[in-house]
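Troubleshooting entry. The earlier prediction with nicotinamide-adenine-dinucleotide gave an output that would not parse, so I re-checked the input for stray whitespace and re-submitted. Clean input:
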Amino acid sequence: MKLTIIGTGYVGLVTGTCFAEMGHHVTCLDINQEKIDTLKQGQIPIYEPGLEEIVKRNVSDGRLQFTSDYAEAVKDALVCFLAVPTPEGEDGSADLKYVLQASRQVAEHMQDYTVIVDKSTVPVGTARQVKTVISEELEKRSANIEFDVVSNPEFLKEGNAVADFMKPDRVVIGVDNVRVGALMKELYAPFMLNHERLIIMDIFSAEMTKYASNAMLATRISFMNDLSHICETVGADINKVRLGMGSDRRIGNLFLYPGIGYGGSCFPKDVKALCKTAKKNGHSLSILEAVDNVNNEQKKLLGNKIISYYADKGGLEDKTIALWGLSFKPETDDIREAPALVLIEQLRAEGATVRLFDPVSMDNVKRSIANHDNIEWCNDEMEAAENSDAIALVTEWRRFRFPDYTALLNSMKGNAFFDGRNQHEPLDMAGRGFDYISIGRRDVYADTKQKGLAII
Ligand code: NAD
């Protein structure tokens, strides 16, 4: 089938590439000319494990191409996917301007029956709006062309996007007629050889399924984060609680990791957008409002712990803190809504200098921060730690799990280790000479033994 993907970002590029890998002929379109030029030169504008190799193979096999020209991209396409941003609008609802603009441009150029597929995360009712916009444009052209609008929300995870797309847990398709349902089934057939995971439903339910899924995942994270505070106070260890509760099959052990809040381009905006949809329809999703509030507070937690640790040590004015990891999660260069950005500003506001390192997102962070005062950019985690008073582990990249602890401590000025992702064992870290502070567990200092704390 001939497909066009509109918007060549994290979702669009992966979607287009994976469809090409399965034998479809794909054109990826973007209005960002720089991005298209980069792709045409054989480079990948984002970091996503495994993607580069498949892009190159499919380009050289002639099944994948890139353009910024709508006329060229749309004229022969049977299916046009919309994978454009749906950022948070001023009032918290999803801003649909990119979706509607792209729909309009598709309508200006389509020549024959076309299926327009919403892959962007969009509120219930958006497919109906897309349909209206396309009908209006076709009417302006006096063009009598048949079309269908389908909802096909995307569930891939950045950092594992190719594997998620190639072997999805499920593919949700929202349609309003049988014919287009059959066409979507044929399109996804190469992904379903192992077993059928296509779930066909009405459009409203498909649109809602995406928000419901992200809201549930965000809820699990905020639930654990909220619980971590009370664990700390009463002397329980949230990691042990997690293991105990997660082994119940009704609960499961995924998405129960306490930390310093969820970020990224999806959970924060999708939780807010769903709350807004509910409000517009006369309901209040109070659980989700709490999820959002807990998350906003949690993003400040590591900074608050650092500030309080130094409160009786002269404050942060002359202190240097190394940040390990900046992206909102490992295996991606995406820093949208990343907790690291909150922490950097909190520490600088207190007068600290920050030494930053992330394996892949350094350039994105440099671009996103206007004022670079009190920031030192480092080439690796050990360099960041040099002469630092403390380390703050912000993103749980695997390489931060087992550093050379002795070399680390020798190169630092101080010995504090703030672990925002509970990657290390408290007593083990104390035994190695660190003042170790983590999330939802008792703080343990290097002089633990002298203080006579029990070792469990
Ligand atoms: P992105 O910002 O990485 O990419 C979007 C691309 O669309 C950009 O390159 C932009 O230049 C382009 N664009 C904007 N307007 C355009 C237009 N009129 N015509 C052509 N191109 C245009 O965004 P993303 O992270 O890929 O997200 C896209 C959508 O998918 C959003 O709705 C998001 O919520 C949803 N989603 C994202 C993820 C994820 O992990 N990133 C997962 C599932 C769903």
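This one parsed fine. The CA atoms of residues 123 and 207 lie 6 Å apart.
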